[in-house]
Amino acid sequence: MGHVLVYAESRGTDLRKIALEATTAARALADGSGGGEVQAIVFGPPGIEAVAPTLGRYGADVVVVVEAAGFDRYARESIAATVAARAASGYRAILAGFSAQGRDLGPRVAATLDLPIVADVTEIRVDGDALAVQHPGYANKVIVRLRVSGSGAVVTVRPSAFTPVETPRAGRVERMQPAADPGAERVHVNDVIQGVAGGPDLADAPVIISGGRGLKAPENFKLLEDLAGAFGNAAVGATRAVTDEGWRPHSDQVGQTGRQVSPQLYVAVGISGAIQHLAGMRTSRTIVAINKDKEAPIFKVADYGIVGDALEIVPVLTQAVREAKGR
Amino acid sequence: MKIAVCIKRTPDSESRFKIAPSGTGIDETGLKFDIDDFASYAVEVALRLNEKEGAGETVVLAVGPDALQETLRKAMSMGAERAIQLKCDSQPFDGLAVAKALAAELAGGGYDLVLFGKHAFDSSAGIVGTATATLLGIPCVTAVSQLEIAGGRGTARRDLEGVSELVTFSLPAAVTIDEGIARPRYPSLKGIMGAKKKPLEIKPAHLGAIRVVVSSMALPPERPAGRIIGEGPGAVPELVRLLQTEAKVL
Amino acid sequence: MIGSGSPVLFLFILTLAAGFFSLNVQRLAGYLRLGVADPRLDHPWARLKNVLVIAIAQRKILRDPVAGPMHAVIFWGFMVLTVGTVEILIQGIVPGFSVGLFLPHPIYVLYSGSQDLFAVLVAAAVAFAFFRRLVLHPRRLDGDHLAHTDALIILGLIGALMVTLLLSNGLLAVARPGEVGSEKVAAHAIGAAFAGVTAETAMSGARILWWSHVLIVLTFLNYLPYSKHLHVVTSLFNVFFSNTSGPGTRGAMRPMDLEAAAESFGAADVEQLSWKNLLDGYSCTECGRCTAACPANLTGKLLSPRKIIVNTRQRLMEKGPLVSGESMPFAARVLSMVHDEGSAVDSRSPSDIIDHHLLGDYISEEELWACTSCRACVQECPVAIDQLDVINQLRRYLVLSESRFPEEIQPAFESLERNGSPWAFSPADRGAWAEGMQIPTMAELAARGERPDVLFWVGCMGSFDDRAKKITIAFARILQACGIRFAILGQEEHCHGDPARRMGNEYLYQMLAKAAIATLDRYGVTTVVTSCPHCFHQIGNELPDLGGHYEVIHHSTYIERLLQEDRVPLRGEDGRRLTVAYHDSCYLGRYNEIYDAPREAIRRALPVVTVVDPPRSRDRGLCCGAGGGRMWMEETKGKRINAERTEELLATGADTIAVACPFCMTMMTDGVRAAGSDASVLDVAEVVAGQLSV
Hints:
Number of strands of chain A: 18
Mean pLDDT of chain A: 90
Order of helices and strands of chain B: EEEHEHEHEHEEEEHEEEH
Oligomer: heterotrimer
Largest interface: A-B, 90 and 80 residues
Distance between the termini of chain A: 50 Å
CATH architecture of chain B: 3-Layer(aba) Sandwich
Largest sheet of chain A: 7 strands, parallel
Order of helices and strands of chain A: EEEHEHEHEHEEEEEEEEHEHEHEHEH
Number of strands of chain B: 13
Shape of chain B: globular
Radius of gyration of chain B: 21 Å
Number of domains of chain A: 2
CATH class of chain B: Alpha Beta
């Protein structure tokens, strides 16, 4: 009791950024509830063990490594069974990131162990016997504070809500056999098609450059890709208007019915700022808008705005960012 | 096919929200409620699957108070054959409790497919679908944008985080639905009139212990007003300076 | 007189002809009974007045400066000559009968001379009609798969009637000069050409021509049920029973009872249309004035108002016999001979006919959705047909019974249901335009126990659309400058549902309209001013059907009144000399006959201005393209309607285009931008507000 289990999400043999965020959150929670251990559980193909030191650096006392060739992808049922088996001994909380994997895994573990579950959380505190969490609900329009009672809980944390902090711990490796065979999944993945090649995913990227109708033609998205390249760690997003037209893939859509993102920096290029789009990015730390209509609603939400023709401004900005990064 | 669609009643997503005087909920005056967006996609998927097959039954379920009945009727006006309200005093925030109530009703019901919306607008949690499937012991595929069923097997396409997956599975199964090609149909007046006569059963919801409750709700702090720093490419140097020094993101 | 020479034979033939005719009339009347009931006996005196003005005085026909007088001559001639025809027919049975037996001689001379004169005039008009149709070939007489066969037969028969009449009288003048008064000038002139013929020969000739004339009359009579010329029987009734020029409000859509447990709503086939729609089908002469005025048609869309009505008739002729069990003899043969491939009567089996529908098999969905409800077709129709009513009934069926409509309007329906506005804006933002203007809301005034003199109904465009908000602000400034005690509903204002109604969604409309009435009545509103003609029309002309009665004034009228009363503080001459082209809004103009107030308001406000009218102005104004729900639809075929109109407005040489409607504002602004012109587009309120001295 008092220990916190954290699911450290990986892709192949690499850790995803969300794993470090969740581990940081777990560390803070464990410290705040009387100093229990943080035990990170990670799944992967042979070689995954190499991530253990990193997890240790971010606060894991123990790193449970579950290694099998079948874990080169997200074997949902096997991973859920294994996490549940590990957690059966009883943890104060089980944490994961609110990523595609975490959204899927959390409820499975909660249902298997009959633990209460809260998702997409931005703050966690201990409140007596209960946990107090905060979650931005209603499309980020209302802050909801929830009280989770009971002797354990599953909590998934919102990407980018917890900044990874290095709090080095032992990171002692334990090996565990999977509780179910990853080859016996009832959902078979037949094909995986990568999206637009290269670059971080919208969920991971600290900087997002997004384009809308104001770019006039699909070819002009090349300018945004150049700008993203200049930042180095940026992803390119799009509004519903342009994904509906087929200029960009549907998975790039930022908005109420698309991806909800919360990067450090969001640059909205040629985007008017319809409510539907704002719902997807309004919690970004810093918002920059470039639009030729100074009355466009996006300027009311942006921290910094430039009025003018995006097609002229973006190349200049790209060059300036390159220079700034070069220093 | 016998398809169950679990829906949720949520307020219109364009609304401006205010906090109720109690501080533990939103002020519902003047709000319009309807089937949650992704759940209505799920209803549409179910209707199309059964239309394609030519036979079958689409049953809609929801957990909550009597205000839900209007929402269930809306689903029936789109074409669902019957509805079940699992009644409790107020819509729970405890996703697992909702899943327990649904699983208790669905178990042994002979459903080939159980559909959910990917997540609901108010909680955005996406808990209920996967949890219910786990409780029922059936496979679960989440965030599906295209779904086909043939010969007791399902083929689904999922778009997540820049990657598309094609998966297959056997029925019975649970699927949570993302926006896809099909727009939820607009009910005709004929459908609306017909829905009034379709069966709507009310049963108590077996939620079990409620362990997640709202302690308070608040509106997010107003973002401080931003500013337009200039016009045209000439404003770029100033922007870069501000991003470096003020916002510290560069 | 000439007479038949064998009254018994003649009576026999007359009875046959009359009998056959009346049987067909009964059958056609029976087909009308397929249609839904529609009471049209209200306001009989107003209806009679319409008949006198539109039908008898040919007011609408005369809108065409060439074909108008031509037809008027033929029609008046027909009326005058009908008296003579009756006389001739009686003379066939009763030798020696004459109208002169009952009339004082001078009146008889007038009558007799009129027969002769009009025969010549009609003959001349018919000759011109042939020339016009065959040589001048006006565009509107073509299209919609219509053949000229029917028209040529009719003209031929009329011409033959005139020729036989004049010739027979001419020969009578030779045979028995005393019997043909000198007032029959033409007859005598013709007689003079046959001066050398013997009296006997002349009399034989006269008799042959008499019989020819009468047989042509009876043949023509029996040809009517198979021809578009049926309108001579039906048009006066059609005008009497029509609502398109009043009585009551013009342009109000047909009320619908949704409580009725109906199998379907709206109309998919002729039995779901009203008998009046079907009578419209009988009365159409295929003149094409409607289609020639249709903004959709003239920019290349499939919609043709004429086709809608012709299809209605064709379908009724196809289905009527099956349903009523009474078919017209020779119908298939004559119809297919005379009406090109438009009638499929010959090729379909009974079960085929039952399986087909007016909607889908005759009239396509694309045609129906192309309509902007501008009412130009209704305005032009000389026999008061309501083409728009049929379009609306079919739209209602598509939406209410089948939920089939262009997918781009579904968000508008959903948004109306959820947000009370056809666009996805939060209701909380409705009053945002008034920030800083200190305009009280009805709620605020009510809390103080006060009421304003007038409610300013802003409308959804005026509340949410960035460009239209400027119009709202301009008008509010004018009201404030004049010290008018007004208020707005603010967040309590929700769409009255007019867009939903125009798009056929009567269910959603009634829900919204009733809610709007409840809000207005809760505050005891009696007087409303609005800057949107759609709101103006809806609140003033259609809400009364649902129990909402308010005095509604359009802002251009309101401004003009204020200017007239000198209540608006204006600046003096500022040296600008504007040329303003005013674009008539359909819902202000054709629907509500407000043409002058906006123009006057501009003239009074601007010290030096030239107001110009484009060629298609006032009740001939060309629609901007946004009405009938088209504001929410994509325009993919042909030329954009707003481009067509913008071209016309810019061609006047004006530097400013003035509008009085936020929809027109959007369309004209887009049009001007697309044309690359730098002409400015201003609302009347903005023109006046720009001249305020405060």
